[in-house]
Amino acid sequence: MMGSISLAQAQSMITDSIHWAQENNQHIAVAVVDSVGELISFSRMDETSPQTCLLAQNKAYTAARDRQKTSQLAAWAKETSKTINFWTDPRITGMAGGVPVKDKAGKVVGAIGISGMAEFDDEALAESILAQR
Q: How would you classify residue 20: left for phi > 0, otherwise alpha for psi between -120 and 50, otherwise beta?
């Protein structure tokens, strides 16, 4: 990735995610955001619930804003006895499936959020999609 995620890159991540889901009989929603959590691109498959759509976007937003996987945020909150309300931002989520996108220097340039499967399956797919880049 370069200094930011282009629309073409975001759409490619989404296309690859949905292609995998179709091959594996899953129904997912995928969001890609920029480094501050603003939506670049979003897609949902047919028969995907409205809650899944919201979660995918919030997972991507959280991973970009907090600069770490959403599952890591949840683990930290549990270890420190904090609730997600600690961040005072209703879009922050600790559900796994949000993964930051980093450039070659390790700087967070955005994030991908996937929802629709078990949390850690969402995260594994997001990591797999990013590993291809």
A: alpha
In our burial notation (b when 16+ CB lie closer than 10 A, e otherwise), range 81-108 reads eeebeebeeeebbbbbbbbbbeeeeeeb
The number of beta carbons lying within 10 Å of the beta carbon of residue 31 is: 30
For residue 127 the two structure tokens come to 């990591």
Supply the pTM of this predicted model: 0.94
Tell me how far CA of residue 119 lies from CA of 56, 74, 101, 133, in angstroms.
11, 12, 18, 22
Q: Which residues have a Cβ under 8 Å from the Cβ of 55 and sit 6 or more positions away?
A: 29, 93, 95, 97, 113, 115
Low-confidence ranges of the chain (pLDDT < 70): 1-2
Rounded to 10°, the helix 119-131/7-23 angle is: 130
What's the pLDDT at 115? 98
